[in-house]
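I would like you to sit down with the record closing this message with an eye to the fold:
=====
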Amino acid sequence: MQEAIVDGWAQESHLSAQSLGSLHDLNHCFLDLVAAGGNPWAIPRGAGLSPGLGAQVAPLSAAQRAAAAGCPYALFDLRFQDDAHWGRRLRNAGEWRVADESLVDDDTSSFVRLALFYAWHVASGAGLKAQLLLGMNRATALAFRGITVNHLPALVVTEAAHLSARWGECTVFWSALTAAAARTEPAALRRVQLHGLQLAAAARLPCP
């Protein structure tokens, strides 16, 4: 059953090389941020992100991080499954103002800016790409589709506080991903990335 879900997930995605290439770059940038450590979002509230994740990612070389980043889904999250949160943020996106931008470091701001643009771009297209790539619910994808690109900069500072590792509570996944990348074992890494596909597919299953 789960294998069938994963196969359907892959077939439905119709992902272009450009979309995946941009996503891999974002994943790589996110892993660099995690490795840098010391950011205020490194252990987000309620995200269950292991304090040791930065220590796991930091020893990886640039090539190993690039390999780990090559997943057909985002390794980062910005509460994309929280429809209520994004409904409030995007309903009156043009009216939000942030007075103090100094609370967010430049690297994190730059990443979140790119991640939000990517999310808006993917959500603006037809199909299920936003749900498949980002774990974004349909209602949130529609809300993103309802704003224009000039509304995105105002979201950066407030949403940076919500940046976290996707499936941050699943230490087995993250430990396996970083270990496989460190050993430079493509077959083992593909198996871990398949497990991530299963996690993404499971999120699409209706609640019992």
Notes: The chain has one domain: 2-202. The radius of gyration is 17 Å.
